[in-house]
């Protein structure tokens, strides 16, 4: 069975010399050094690991913190260099890698042009955006040139978590040991809630009424949205929101969802029941999660073979036009 993994990360030299320099600085222990090696490898080591796990294609992207917290000039430079770097790797391995662009969201008009360059010249199939841009969310009309261009190009935007704004960290997550606060505000809880709120802001802000063909992707089994959807729809009906559709309709028609390291059957079944197999796609979140374990989870899913084929590759092929 063909398997396409949607949220798989890498780093570029431009990123490591800029916003990702802390990754290099932390790479002093064997574990952190190995993590950097996995992120940096866009050749034989990564492909061998894909082969061992049974993964056909990785859709590669620059993960958090990305370039979204940079000033405009640096974000433009790092984005362009990173996209060119990834494009070279895809040219070396065109059957195994697909690209999602990094975008300088601090400069939306430039970001829209960079998205078009990445799609038309580099062959990328969309972009990944790491959450808010210095506390501003994509429902802000400041960013709408990016959303308009994505709809015009018919490519999706992957909304990836990033740490909440510092003011929220201090208000909601501080007061514990530093490591507890760091984890609670990010990958244990905070940045998942942050991403779910970001999605709801897109819906409630009328983004999908303005751009009805626009498609977003979120990971981590939907960032909790499917669990809360019945409650959200009860208390935010269309007569309150004044939107053209129900919130559930937007979540089923304008968003896709991936695993990205969440290998718990109960969470998958909730996502399946609320949002349907035609909106779920496989991903590992490599190297943050294990290719082998996540591929095994896919194999064990309690779904019909036809649904498993959709999740493994069919939905991604349709969305990314592969």
From TrEMBL:
Segments forming domain Amidohydrolase-related: 46-322
SUPFAM superfamilies (alphabetical): Metallo-dependent hydrolases
Top-level taxon of the source organism: Bacteria
Pfam families xrefs: Amidohydro_2
Keywords recorded for this protein, A-Z: Hydrolase, Lyase
A GO CC annotation given for this chain: cytosol
Signal peptide start-end: none
Coiled-coil intervals, chain numbering: none
UniProt name for this protein: Amidohydrolase
A GO biological-process term: secondary metabolic process
Tagged with keyword Lipid biosynthesis: no
InterPro entries (alphabetical): ACMSD, Amidohydro-rel, Metal_Hydrolase
Molecular function GO terms recorded: carboxy-lyase activity; hydrolase activity
